[in-house]
Amino acid sequence: MIINYATIVLYFLVILGVGFLAMRRTRNTEDFAVAGRRLGPVLYSGTLAAVVLGGGATMGSARLGYEYGISGFWLVFMFGFGVLVLSLVFGRKLANLRVFTVSEMLANRYGVASRYISACIMIVYDLMIAVTATIGIGSVFDVVLGVPKFWGILIGGGIMVIYATVGGMWALTLTDILQFGVMIVGFLLVMLPLTLAKVDGVAGLVERLPASYFDPMAIGGGTIVTFLFIYFFGILIGQDVWQRAFTARSPRVTVWAGAAAGIICIVFGCAIALMGAAAKVILPNLTNTDNTLPALISEIMPVGLAGLAIAAILSALMSTASACILAVSTISTRDILSTRYGHTAKDGMAHGRLVTFVTGIVVIGLAVVVGDVLAALTIAYNLLVGGLFVPIVGAMLWKQATKWGALAGMVLGSLTVIAFMIRDGLLANEPIYYSLTVSVVVFVIVSLLTRNPDPTEVSESLSADSLGYRDEYAEKG
């Protein structure tokens, strides 16, 4: 156990060191928020994959693999498929937007009011995703290291907040690359072979598990469709993913390196679901299936290698949590605070650091009191997709969309998803179906009944001065 503790301490020290090293690259708001838009294919694909393969994806897939078998891979498949489609279909458009947030894009298309509404929805979404990942950090400390969950959240979450605050997107990028390497080695090269060896390979699983565990549709067609609507659509419009897209140095990197990241995510999803199924054989009486992956590490990994596996799962969780914390900070500073209070480039970076730190503290506090990881994940994606999917896609694909149609779709879509989550339960399928239907109908009808905004009027409302930005990026236009 001492070796495992030493491995984790060393890992945290390296992560913190990389975070402070990244601070030297962070000279202005563009560096802090989008790494100066300078990432090449290796850095870009690695950081994007690390963000997607986080708390909900890793812990959730292991849980579903334990409960349903290989069909548990559908969760991460939808994440990876979303990244693949986003990169190949919308990647070039995203690279050419030259904005910092999804809400900025919506404001360019629909006007300032849409910016505030979408920013509030996106903040709730990213907060909940960060919370689920931080809960996972606490679970790893509790189950594998024997450290109470409360202290695990404080320790792991605190380190994550520190490096995100001091280095911004550059810190996240460099730590993500390191963390992604740890995930490759820890999960695919070490833990997967040891897990399969423990159950006598795939053949041993076939002998010991019900046939349904090897049916890719066992999780249910309705659940797969719900995953499509929630997680696939959610990836297409999430600020945490878009903000990574804004870091690429060229449209070509956004498209092809992003597509590679999507494929990597799908492969990981299959591996994690398979390990979850093996855990059903190794730990047949597991009471809290949210802890499937940490419990499996504790059961099968020898001393030394267990520390590497723990670092791998912590890497996955910290990548997603830190990305969402920075996303909340960027939205808060760019879309809410700075539209009311002007600042210089230096002030903007200082404000960004302050808001990042405060956001991290809020996330840690929520993680302490929130329990169910999949429920929190579902709430986040329901709100995101139900409220914003239709207006965002409409902004990019439908010229007749108007600001009134977008605002009506956002507000009524969000209210619908909240109402049906209250009525049918947080994990029900109906909220996302009804909210998307309402959002589409209202968006189309209201857009057809109202005139398109005057492009000159929108352009003037979004000038750099009116947004409160007087940094070098705004001066370049």
TrEMBL record:
It holds the Pfam family SSF. Keywords: Membrane, Transmembrane, Transmembrane helix, Transport. It is found in: Membrane. InterPro entries: Na/Glc_symporter_sf, Na/solute_symporter, Sodium:Solute_Symporter. CDD domains: SLC5sbd_u3. It is a multi-pass membrane protein. The chain crosses the membrane at residues 6-23, 43-66, 72-95, 116-138, 150-170, 177-197, 217-238, 259-283, 303-329, 350-370, 376-398, 405-426, 432-450. Its main location: membrane. Belongs to the sodium:solute symporter (SSF) (TC 2.A.21) family. PANTHER family: SODIUM-SOLUTE SYMPORTER-RELATED (PTHR48086:SF7), SODIUM/PROLINE SYMPORTER-RELATED (PTHR48086). This is SSS family solute:Na+ symporter. It comes from Paeniglutamicibacter psychrophenolicus.
